[in-house]
Amino acid sequence: MNLWIPSGSEKSQGICVKPSFIVLGPDPDDLLAQGVTDANGNINLQGSETETTNIDPVFNVYHNCDDKLKLGLRKLKFRIPDSYITWGKTPKRMFNIGVLNLETIFPEEERQLI
């Protein structure tokens, strides 16, 4: 997964991106990979997991861009299309979400203490 996250006119270094997946079954919400953006606001993540049921992968972005003094971090949640789920440890396709401006207020945005 490739992602570049600017925060307004400044690049967003150190933004926490925590891809996880939701599984219908006994082992929900396993962490697939996580990382933070570099000095240019970029992140490149790859992960794998063995499961016996279908997965619905999502990735979460936690940030405090344009947030004033509110408790916790803003949390954005994005679903990864099924066409990017492959068998094996090496992905056959890379999901590129592109550029996200974190000043945007997303309709289903949440807050979370981390």
TrEMBL record:
Keywords in alphabetical order: Secreted, Signal
Major localisation: secreted
Identification of the protein by name: Transthyretin-like family protein
GO cellular component annotations of the record: cell surface; extracellular region
Alphabetical list of InterPro entries matching this protein: Transthyretin-like, Transthyretin-like_sf
Gene3D superfamilies hit by this protein: 2.60.40.3330
Highest taxon, organism lineage: Eukaryota
Record localization: Secreted
Family from the record: Belongs to the nematode transthyretin-like family.
